[in-house]
Design a protein that fits this description.
The structure holds two protein chains of two kinds. By secondary structure, chain A is mostly beta strands. Helix content of chain A is 0%, strand content 49%. In chain A, the strands form two sheets. In chain A, strands 2, 4, 5, 6, 9, 10 and 11 form a seven-stranded mixed sheet that branches. A four-stranded antiparallel sheet of chain A has the order 1-3-8-7, with no helix packed on it. Chain A is globular and about 40 Å long. The termini of chain A are far apart. Chain B has no helices and nine strands. Classes of the chains: A mainly beta, B mainly beta. The interface between A and B is medium-sized, with 22 and 26 residues.
Chain lengths: 120, 110
């Protein structure tokens, strides 16, 4: 059974870089069939897609995040990190990592999520 | 303001049927596949429907999906109290070049 687990600091200061890691077990991220993505959910609000990456290094992300997003794949560790730079209070959210099916782009496996608060 | 429009809430009695709508445009629902997710309180979203109308094997056949034009619908029959959750639709938007979600619908089973 595929499992995804987010990890990282729960508190980040404004203007700094948010760094999270998703560790995948029960399957390899080095597969052509899937992307590996990040989605967030501000407190009391809906889901927001951040971006996704493929083991070929192809990456795509929400244009509204204006280049603040970096998603990479570490195939040696079966992990995919997320970096979000220049954070503000608006970036406070529960961050989920998920597997995304290539082609029709739905998310079939999700991590449990990690709350990240942006505050000084 | 979400690109996809869902009703904020729906409610029905146990054993009844409910439908949740998701309205979009030709740049998203009209030309791309729709998926639906269930988020029980305090938990991560779970895939309910993919490719408009397909169910993962572990999802009960009480859940169904359909799409017509620029709208999609999630149907739930034989409502149970355990179905109380937030439900989200999602798809690709070809104009925005982004995955988009609806604002979510809170289902209450009275």
């Amino acid at each position: 059974q595929l499992q995804l687990q987010e990890s990282g600091p729960g508190l980040v200061k404004p203007s700094e870089t948010l760094s999270l890691t998703c560790t995948v077990s029960g399957g390899s991220i080095s597969t052509s069939l899937y992307y590996w993505g990040w989605i967030r959910q501000p407190p009391g609000k809906g889901l927001e897609w951040i971006g996704s990456s493929h083991y070929t290094r192809f990456t795509f992300h929400d244009p509204s995040l204006k280049g603040r997003v970096t998603i990479s794949l570490d195939t040696s560790k079966n992990q995919f990190p997320l970096k979000l730079s220049s954070v503000t209070a608006a970036d406070t959210a529960v961050y989920y990592c998920a597997r995304q099916v290539k082609g029709t782009l739905y998310f079939d496996y999700w991590g449990k999520g990690i709350l990240v608060t942006v505050s000084s | 303001q979400s690109v996809l429009t869902q009703p904020p809430s729906v409610s029905a009695a146990p054993g009844q049927k409910v439908t949740i709508s998701c309205s979009g445009s030709s740049s998203n629902i009209g030309n791309n596949y729709v998926s639906w997710y269930q988020q029980l309180p305090g938990t991560a979203p779970r895939l309910l429907i993919y490719d408009n109308d397909k169910r993962p094997s572990e999802i009960a056949d009480r859940f169904s999906g359909s799409k017509s034009g620029t709208s999609a619908t999630l149907g739930i029959t034989g409502l149970q109290t355990g179905d109380e959750a937030d439900y989200y639709c999602g798809t690709w938007d070809s104009t925005l070049s982004a995955v988009v979600f609806g604002g979510g619908t809170k289902l209450t089973v009275l």
